[in-house]
Design goal:
Number of helices: 10
Largest sheet: 3 strands, mixed
Order of helices and strands: EEEHEEHHHHHHHHH
Number of strands: 5
CATH architecture of the largest domain: Up-down Bundle
Shape: flat
Strand order of the largest sheet: 3-4-5
Structural class: mainly alpha
Amino acid sequence: MDGCLHFTSGQYVDQIPHQSVSMILLGPGGSVTHDALRLLARHGTLLAAVGASGVRSYTALPLMPDRSDVARRQAELWGSARRRLAVARHMYALRLGEVLPHRDLDTLRGIEGARVKTIYRLRAQQFGIDWNGRHYDRANPEAADLANQAINHAATAVQAAAAIAVQALAAVPRLGFIHEDLGQAFVLDIADLFRDDVTLSIAFAAVKQAERGAATIDRLVRREAARVFRKQQVIPAMIDRIKQVLRVDEKLEEADGASRSGDS
């Protein structure tokens, strides 16, 4: 009623500086009032309903964030076949540790697939886990062995973190550079950049805990994902990575240079 956004928990009430916050994550058990939604919309503050510690992303209201620079830069790069391939090659270089000379996307996907098989095997060895290859049946996901089930759950958690990062920057989820024809194509692009170090670490750590009979594998993965997200600041790292692959800072420097040239 006083034009401010408040967070309440029992007798505790705190004011949220929503004018200077780009996004609010509403976790399990939270609720929001009509007046709060009105204030968020007025100030262009995003609101997303997420799982504990951001390990799930259920929905984000399109409250028209007060920025378009990242989305315009993404569309500019995506709209050019040459630039789109350059961004894809940059993403593969970040994952594989080298710039591949190939300029055919299907060839790059094939090379990645071969490298990923080796990475899965090596990461499993590091955690002391028996690995028999990646197997996933969409019709019956629980039929897979424990390691594959854990990877499925961990991938979902990391994709949720990537979705939050994409939403926070007001990037366009549908304009992917490696993934295509999917509503969350760019989200999957970003999640894949963290597959080797984050997704597999979460999954295999949870498998080791499950072997001790600690809890169900999905619960263990969620707990481990929440711990890793906090410790490694995964979502901020994803935001930085999005800016890197889209070369946002470079674009801002170009715009600033053009502005100074025009002033002179």
